[in-house]
Amino acid sequence: MTEPTPVPDAAGGGSRTATVPPDPVVPAPASKQASNGHRQNGAPHAEASTGSTSEPGVDTHVNGTPAAVPTAVQAAVTRADARSGDDVEAGIVALWRSYGESHDQGQRDRLVLHYAPLVKYVAGRVGTGLPAHVDVADLIQSGIFGLVDAIEKFEPERGLKFETYAMQRIRGAILDDLRSQDWVPRSVRSRARDVERALERLGAKLQRTPTDRELAAELKIGLAELRELYGQLQLTSVVALDELIAPNKGGSSLAESLPDDAAEDPVASLVDQDSRRQLADAIAQLAERDRVVVTLYYFENLTLAEIGKVLGVTESRVCQLHTRAVLRLRTKLNEQSEA
Asked: Would you say 174 and 142 are in contact if contact means Cβ atoms under 8 Å apart?
């Protein structure tokens, strides 16, 4: 036979009646009776092991075995969470109704804060297929404008779900902002996707890389038009200069790896310095008149006739001195290189 047992209500006020079956009476061991029990008026007083816990939801033990007791506290928490969720939903419905009547900016801002996680979710989905230099924070900023526009244009009386409507508007705002920043026409982007799909189809069909003629036939265009399309598609391949080439190997950027045509080659500079040193040593070993001819001709930029006037000889004699000096220099330089 069962007895009604009062159980505290989840809200904290009053009580409700629950039916709890009586627990089986299990005699306690003699050691426990001796240590825990005591006599009162000549009769042993046994502690109640079941059905008399001070707090609901606490597991009792019979002979060391835990007994399953309904947890009223957990049930109360579940009902409280359900009521809190219902209260939030009711508050949003009331906020929508109030905003529809007054179009107050403060109420709109409260709706924006409530639905802000939608923007982050959509921005993450859209940013998955974008290049690495596109910042997700910029996508979120664009999506916020889409969320505000969705709130201002949403009509709750139609019975539609706002989340579905808002996600489309947020995604559209993000894509519009991306297109406004793209310098490549949409037609070129579309043709680039067509070329990629055609390459995938032909690659799977032929089991090799298709030729330009085969690709043009697949796209149903001429070979000249395909090559012109290649030139247009080159504009779509852009890499950020601050993008890291090898993040795990020092973190150098692409800008640091680009060659500088105006920079001086250190190897060439060293070779030039060594060649100048060898030439100076070879000139120092020439005869005085040969050394004067070489100096005036190559360093002072004098003509053979002018050198002849300086030395007091004819131009033909200066030419002979110059030829002899060059041959001697060449011989000395060869000896130095072979040494």
From this structure: yes
Cα radius of gyration rounded to whole Å, the chain: 47
Cβ-based neighbour number of residue 125 at 10 Å:
13
Sign of CA dihedral 321, 327, 333, 338: negative
CA distance 111 to 93: 11
Please give the angle made by the CA atoms of 166, 171 and 177, to the nearest 5 degrees.
125
For the chain, helix, strand, coil in percent to 5 are: 65, 10, 30
For residues 153 and 165, the answer to whether their CB atoms sit within 8 Å is no
Tokens of 235: 């504009």
Instruction: Name the amino acid, one letter, at 310.
Output: V
E strands within 198-338? none
For the entire predicted model, the pTM comes to 0.43
Q: Kindly report the CA angle at 262 between 245 and 133, in degrees rounded to 5?
A: 25
* 97 alpha carbon, distance to own chain's centre: 40
31: CB partners within 8 A, 6+ apart: none
| 121-164 pLDDT, tens digit each | 999 998 887 877 788 889 999 999 999 999 998 887 777 888 88
User: What DSSP string describes 233-279?
Assistant: HGGG----TTSBS-TTTT--BHHHHS--TTSPPHHHHHHHHHHHHHH
